[in-house]
Amino acid sequence: MSTDVHILRSCDGPRLTIPDADITVLVPGEVTRGAYEVFLVESRQGRPGPLHTEPWPKSYHLLRGRILVQAADTGYELAAGESITFPPGTMNTFTVLSESAEFLLVTAGADMSGFFTELDALGRAQHSEEDAAPLLHKLANEYGITLASQAGAS
């Protein structure tokens, strides 16, 4: 068996918690030599994450539930089995429309897992909301992610 083969059994990858979802890293960037990453995203109905852009393309493939993906100025409702892909720099977020949803998130490059890992650590540090906001902006900037509140504050 080649040493380049990566097998993950029963979602044993790192499990991270961010404000709007639980994320399991299925295929980390180091396994693909930085080409792409794959995540299992599990989220419940509630407040969506902030609108943001990333400097890499990404795709959602819905496995269970219904979500609304905001990409640029348009909302796209997805049901199980449907996918959406958009280019780098697209302002985006998602909202779970059903009680809960699961989807695969595929991103180009190897930076999304680093961002999710640091965001998970930021949440575990239990900062006050007032202290967490500037830390989130700093973290986003380190990964080339722009939050909508930053985009409007030029």
Description:
With 154 residues, the protein is of the alpha+beta class. 20% of the residues lie in helices and 40% in strands. The strands form three sheets. It has a six-stranded antiparallel beta sheet with strand order 1-2-3-10-5-8, with helices on one face. Strands 7-6-9 form a three-stranded antiparallel beta sheet, with no helix packed on it. Helix 1 (112-124) packs antiparallel against helix 2. It is globular. The protein starts with 14 loop residues before the first strand and ends with a helix. The relative contact order is 0.20.
Q: Cα-atom Rg, whole angstroms?
A: 15 Å
Query: How far is the N terminus from the C terminus?
Result: 52 Å
- Rounded mean pLDDT score: 91
The portion of residues assigned to helices is 10-25%
Low-confidence stretches: none
Strand content: 35-45%
The gist of it:
The protein has 154 residues and is α+β, with helices and mostly antiparallel strands.
SSE inventory with pairings:
Blueprint: E1 15-18, E2 21-27, E3 36-44, E4 52-53, E5 58-64, E6 66-71, E7 74-79, E8 83-86, E9 92-96, E10 100-108, H1 112-124, H2 129-142, E11 146-147, H3 148-151
Antiparallel strand pairs: 1-2, 2-3, 3-10, 4-11, 5-8, 5-10, 6-7, 6-9
Helix pairs in contact: 1-2
